[in-house]
C-alpha cells in the first residue's frame, strides 16, 4: 500500500461517519462514480484539497461497510427491475459479476492492472454488458475507456451509466440525441452505519425517515443515498460539478416507486424526477435526462 493510500485510509477511518465500524472495509465507492468500486483496494482518486470529495468518500465507506448482501442476483429478474426504471428508448442489462480480464481489451485491462481480482471482475462485467448494449444501439466500439475524472468515455452519440455492488452489475445507455444524461445506482437493501444520515440527509428527508422505525429507517437512508448517487451520475459527465449530498434534496414516493429531487444552481432545471425500486434484496435508482 502506497503512502497516498495509507493517508487515504487514515482520513476515512478518522471520520465520525465511519468511526463506529467494527469490520474492515469491504467496498469503497468514489463520489459520483460507482464504477470506481474497489473491494479491499482503495482507489487513488480523491483530491485531498477538496473537502466535498472527502466527505463523499467517508459517507460511501459508511454506507458500504455492512455485511454482504446474501441475495443471489438473477440476470432475468434484475433486468426486469431495471426495465421498470427507464423509458423504452434506454437499453439496460444486468449480470452477476462473472466476467474477468480475458473479456477486456488491452486498453481496458491496463486500467485495472493494479486492482485486486474482485475489482477487475466488477470492471470486466460492466464493460462486457456495456459493449453488448452498444452493439444493440448500433455502435461497434471496441473498448470503453475512462477519462481523467474516471468517467466512462462513451462513443460519440451515446450516454450511459454503469453501477455495481456486491455481486450485481447493471448498465443503462441511450442515444445522446434524445437524452442528455442517464444515472443508475444499485445498492444492497441493507442498513447503513450510524452517522451516515447526518451527512446524506437533509431535514425534510429526516422527517420522512422518522415515519419508519429501527432497521427500516436505516434502509431508507440507503435509499436516499442511492437516489442521490443516480442524480449525480446523470449530471456530472456534462456539468463536471461536485455537489454535496445536502445540495440535492429528495421526496420519495415508496408506493409509486418514484422520487423528485431538487437540484443546486447550475443545471438548466432545478427539479428532476426519477424511479426507485426496492425488491429482491436490492435498491435500484435511476434518472433519465430527456432532451426537450
Structure notes:
By secondary structure, this protein is an alpha+beta fold. A hairpin with a 2-residue loop joins β2 and β3. The radius of gyration is 18 Å and the shape is globular. It is 34% helix and 21% strand. It has a domain at 75-177: Ribosomal Protein L22, Chain A. The strands form two sheets. A five-stranded antiparallel beta sheet has the order 4-8-7-6-5. The chain has a three-stranded antiparallel beta sheet with strand order 1-3-2.
Features of the shown structure:
single chain; 292 residues; alpha+beta; Ribosomal Protein L22, Chain A; 21% strand; disordered N terminus
| Strand portion | 15-25%
Largest sheet: 5 strands, antiparallel
Helix content: 25-40%
What's the β-strand tally?
Answer: 8
Low-confidence segments:
1-58
Rg to the nearest angstrom? 18 Å
Strand order of the largest sheet: 4-8-7-6-5
**Averaged pLDDT:** 79
Distance between the termini: 48 Å
By secondary-structure content and strand pairing, the structural class works out as: alpha+beta
Strand-and-helix sequence, N→C?
A: HHHEHHEEEHHHEEEE
Shape: globular
Annotated CATH homologous superfamily of one domain: 4'-phosphopantetheinyl transferase domain
What is the CATH architecture descriptor of one domain?
Answer: Alpha-Beta Complex
Q: Regarding CATH, which class of one domain?
A: Alpha Beta
Total helix count?
8
CATH topology of one domain: Ribosomal Protein L22, Chain A
Amino acid at each position: 500500500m502506497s503512502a497516498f493510500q495509507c493517508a487515504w485510509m487514515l482520513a476515512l477511518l478518522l471520520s465520525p461517519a465511519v468511526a463506529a465500524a467494527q469490520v474492515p472495509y469491504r467496498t469503497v465507492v468514489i463520489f459520483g462514480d460507482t464504477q470506481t468500486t474497489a473491494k479491499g483496494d482503495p482507489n487513488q482518486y480523491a483530491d485531498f484539497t477538496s473537502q466535498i470529495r472527502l466527505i463523499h468518500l467517508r459517507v460511501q465507506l459508511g454506507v458500504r461497510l455492512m455485511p454482504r448482501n446474501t441475495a443471489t442476483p438473477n440476470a432475468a429478474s434484475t433486468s426486469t427491475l431495471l426495465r421498470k426504471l427507464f423509458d423504452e428508448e434506454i437499453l439496460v442489462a444486468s449480470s452477476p459479476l462473472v466476467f474477468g480480464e480475458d473479456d477486456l481489451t488491452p486498453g481496458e485491462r491496463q486500467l485495472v492492472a493494479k486492482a485486486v481480482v474482485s475489482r477487475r471482475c466488477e470492471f470486466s462485467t460492466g464493460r462486457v454488458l456495456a459493449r453488448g448494449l452498444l452493439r444493440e444501439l448500433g455502435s461497434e466500439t471496441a473498448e470503453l475507456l475512462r477519462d481523467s475524472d474516471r468517467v466512462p468515455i462513451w462513443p460519440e452519440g451515446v450516454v450511459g451509466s454503469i453501477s455495481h455492488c456486491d455481486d450485481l452489475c447493471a448498465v443503462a445507455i441511450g442515444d445522446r440525441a434524445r437524452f442528455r444524461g442517464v444515472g443508475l445506482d444499485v445498492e444492497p437493501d441493507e442498513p447503513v452505519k450510524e452517522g451516515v444520515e447526518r451527512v446524506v440527509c437533509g431535514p425534510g428527508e429526516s422527517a420522512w425517515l422518522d415515519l419508519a422505525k429501527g432497521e427500516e429507517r436505516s434502509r431508507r437512508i440507503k435509499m436516499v443515498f442511492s437516489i442521490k448517487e443516480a442524480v449525480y451520475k446523470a449530471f456530472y459527465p456534462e456539468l463536471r460539478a461536485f455537489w454535496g449530498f445536502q445540495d440535492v434534496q429528495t421526496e420519495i414516493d415508496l408506493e409509486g416507486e418514484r422520487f423528485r429531487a431538487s437540484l443546486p444552481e447550475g443545471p438548466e432545471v432545478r427539479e428532476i424526477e426519477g424511479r426507485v425500486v426496492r425488491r429482491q434484496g436490492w435498491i435500484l435508482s435511476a434518472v433519465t435526462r430527456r432532451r426537450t
